[in-house]
From TrEMBL:
NCBIfam families, per database record: lytR_cpsA_psr
Residues covered by the Cell envelope-related transcriptional attenuator domain: 108-261
Disordered: annotated span: 48-87
Gene3D superfamilies (alphabetical): LCP protein
Full protein name: LCP family protein
Sequence similarity: Belongs to the LytR/CpsA/Psr (LCP) family.
Stored InterPro entries: LytR/CpsA/Psr_CW_biosynth, LytR_CpsA_psr
């Protein structure tokens, strides 16, 4: 009798193991990025298709008033036409937004990065958008792209108006559909960095951090907490290249955060951490989407991420929102078209 119970117990354990293995296999197939994001109900927040004749010609595209400081005439180092597309029909775009406030809803967008995710190749393409980039916004005119968030927030009765207006402005600028967004503020960014134990950054020179009380981040490697990481991604005055150097630091920190999240010590708690991140990051990704992205980024290498910045020039002209002359980054339309074609396959 005891021998029979022993055999029944073994059979039950075996059956349970088979069921668990099947469930694990099903879950993995469901979350595999190449499968998970290849579906008909994927979000589309803005198509990128619009009638450009709705906007009057921008006089700054024909020259306009140049910047008075030659040091502002900084161009990204990339040759826009040399970037070859690695995109696919499954690729989708995510707009990453950092708001310059600690309240989540106020302020302007201090950070704007478009991330194209290519699940079939497990690649990511990042395009930094200078916050001073000149764009056309309906009912406003030509203004800075980081004003889009403020304009959207001021529209009564429009839920998530700042996000919607920012998504539309970026989509129009790049002629690119935007499928997802992720937004955080200063406090959320600091908390996220602290939750993963900080990040290690490598500086090519000593950097004076204006937003950290003048603390100097030394040349070489440093392990920094959320407060210093925020100061670094906001810093531009200590770099000769100004805002373009700031954008470079932002993408470097972003890559470092992704690597840190996927360290072996973090993998067991990754699902919990991603779900907790909803306290600090507002997004239209579902929990399943986030878990699928975690699978995609597993084993992430620097070679899996390509970065670029918008080519153009500096200029000053009157802004319709503030009624005075402001600094702008004027995108070179032809070079930008070549860049998006190469980087995003558009």
């Amino acid at each position: 009798m005891g021998h029979r119970r022993w055999k029944i117990g073994l059979a039950a354990i075996g059956a349970a193991a088979v069921v668990l293995a099947a469930a694990a296999g099903w879950a993995y197939r469901e979350l595999d990025p190449a499968r998970h994001f290849d579906r008909d109900d994927i979000a589309i927040l803005s198509t990128g298709d619009w009638d450009s004749s709705a906007a009057p010609p921008d006089p700054l595209q024909d020259g306009g008033e140049p910047a008075s400081d030659p040091s502002d005439q900084v161009l990204p180092s990339e040759d826009a036409g040399s970037i070859q597309s690695e995109s696919s029909s499954q690729a989708f775009q995510v707009l990453l937004l950092g708001v310059d406030s600690r309240e989540g809803r106020g302020g302007r967008t201090d950070v704007m990065i478009v991330a194209q995710v290519v699940p079939s190749k497990r690649k990511v393409n990042l395009l930094s958008i200078p916050r001073d980039t000149r764009v056309w916004i309906p009912e406003v005119g030509y203004t800075k792209i980081n004003h889009a968030y403020v304009v959207g927030q001021s529209k009564s009765g429009q839920e998530n108006g700042g996000i919607r207006e920012s998504v539309d402005a970026v989509s129009r600028l790049l002629r690119l559909p935007i499928h997802y967004y992720a937004l955080t503020d200063f406090s959320g960014f600091e908390t996220l960095i602290d939750e993963i134990g900080g990040v290690t950054v490598e500086m090519e020179e000593d950097v004076y951090l204006h937003h950290a009380g003048g603390l100097v981040l030394p040349k070489g490697q440093s392990h920094i907490d959320g407060k210093l990481a925020l100061s670094l991604v906001r810093e531009r005055y200590s770099f000769a290249a100004g805002d373009f150097a700031r954008q470079t630091q932002q993408t470097r920190v972003l890559k470092t955060v992704a690597k840190e999240l996927l360290r072996p010590s973090h993998v067991p708690e990754l699902a919990k951490l991603l779900i907790q991140s909803r306290k600090w990051v507002e997004t239209n990704f579902t929990d399943k989407d986030l878990l699928s992205l975690a699978l995609m980024f597993k084993g992430l290498e620097d070679s899996d991420i390509r970065t670029a910045q918008i080519p153009g020039r500096s200029a000053y002209t009157n802004d319709p929102l503030v009624g005075q002359s402001l600094y702008y980054w004027v995108a070179d339309e032809q070079k930008l078209k070549a860049l998006t074609a190469g980087l995003f396959g558009r």
